[in-house]
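Listing S7. Sequence submitted for prediction.
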Amino acid sequence: QVQLVESGGGLVQAGGSLRLSCAASGRSLSSNAWGWFRQAPGKEREFVASISWTGTVTDYRDSVRGRFTISRDNTKKTVYLQMNSLKPEDTAIYYCAATKAIVVRTAESDYEYWGQGTQVTVSS
C-alpha cells in the first residue's frame, strides 16, 4: 500500500515563499510521474505541476509558471514544490499525487495515489 504525506503548508504574506514536501511510504514510486494539485474554497481541484519519473521533464499551469518549481528526490521518495512570489489567489489546499505513467500528466484521472492535502494561505 502506498501513502503520500504532504507537509510545509502554512500562512505567508503575499510575495513570500513556501516549500511543500510530499513523502511516499510503501512501495517505491521512483518510476512514476508525480504531480501537485490544489483546491481553493468553492472551486474545483486544479492541476498545478507535474514531473516525470526522471525529473527531467516538468509541466506547470500558466498561472504558476516561473514562480513555482517542482522537483523530486527518488532516494528519499519525496517530491517538492517550491513556491515563490506567492499571491493571495494561490490560497488553497495543495495535494500531491502519483500516477502510473512515467511522463508528466495534467488530468486528475491519470493519478492513482493521493495525499491528504496541506493548507496554504497567502495574505494580502
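Caption to Listing S7: primary sequence and predicted C-alpha cells for the chain studied. The mean pLDDT is 95. The longest strand covers residues 18-25.
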